[in-house]
Write a structure and sequence with these properties.
This protein is an alpha/beta fold. Helix content is about 30%, strand content about 15%. The chain is globular.
C-alpha cells in the first residue's frame, strides 16, 4: 500500500482554526487522510468522540505529557492537542503513517503535538504523565485487519508482557479505548 497525504477538502482548510475539532465527526476528520487510511479507520484509528473524551480525561493540567502508543496517522494526538492544553506525542513504527501524521500537523498548525517514528521498546515511559492505547494489537489478533506488510506480525506480541504491563512499571494515568 502506498500512502500519501490527501489534499484538504478545500483550500481554506490549510492552517485551519483548531476549534472545529471540538465537534468534528469521524467522516469529516478522516477525509483529511488518503483513501487507504480512511478505509481502515473504523478498525484502527480512534473515533473522534473517543479522542476528545480520552484526551480530556488524561490531561488534568496544562502541560500534561501524553504518549499515544501506536498512533497511526496521529488522529488522537491531533484532536487531543487541539481540544486540551496537553502536550501529545505519538509513536508509530510505520514510516508512511508517520509522514502522513506529520504532514497533517504541519498543515493544520496545531501546537503541542509531535509524532515519533520508532518502536515502543525504545520509549522511556518516565518522560510522560499519561498514556493512551487504542487497539494496537488488532492486526496481530486478526490478520485480516493487517494495515500493510511493512511490519512483521507476531502472535508473541499478545503473549509476552510488554514493559508497561510489568508490576515494576508505575504509570500515573492510562486511557485504554477498546
Amino acid at each position: 500500500m502506498t500512502l500519501s497525504f490527501a489534499d484538504p477538502p478545500d483550500s481554506s482548510s490549510a492552517g485551519w482554526d483548531a476549534g472545529f475539532l471540538h465537534s468534528i465527526e469521524d467522516d469529516s476528520f478522516d477525509s483529511l487522510y488518503p483513501r487507504e487510511v480512511r478505509e481502515i479507520s473504523p478498525w484502527h484509528w480512534t473515533p473522534a468522540e473517543v479522542a476528545r473524551k480520552a484526551a480530556a480525561l488524561l490531561v488534568n493540567k496544562p502541560g500534561t505529557r501524553v504518549l499515544d502508543v501506536g498512533c497511526g496517522p496521529g488522529k488522537f494526538c491531533v484532536i487531543g492537542a487541539a481540544t486540551t492544553k496537553g502536550v501529545f506525542t505519538g509513536i508509530e513504527q510505520r514510516g508512511e503513517l508517520v509522514g502522513i501524521a506529520r504532514n497533517l500537523i504541519d498543515r493544520s498548525g496545531i501546537p503541542r503535538v509531535q509524532i515519533v517514528h520508532g518502536n515502543i521498546t525504545t520509549v522511556d515511559f518516565t518522560d510522560y504523565d499519561a498514556f493512551y492505547i487504542f487497539n494496537p494489537f488488532e492486526e496481530n489478533v486478526r490478520q485480516a485487519y493487517q494495515i500493510d506488510a511493512t511490519v512483521e506480525l507476531k502472535a508473541s506480541c499478545m503473549t509476552s508482557t510488554p514493559a508497561m504491563c510489568r508490576p515494576s512499571f508505575r504509570a500515573s494515568r492510562w486511557a485504554h479505548a477498546w
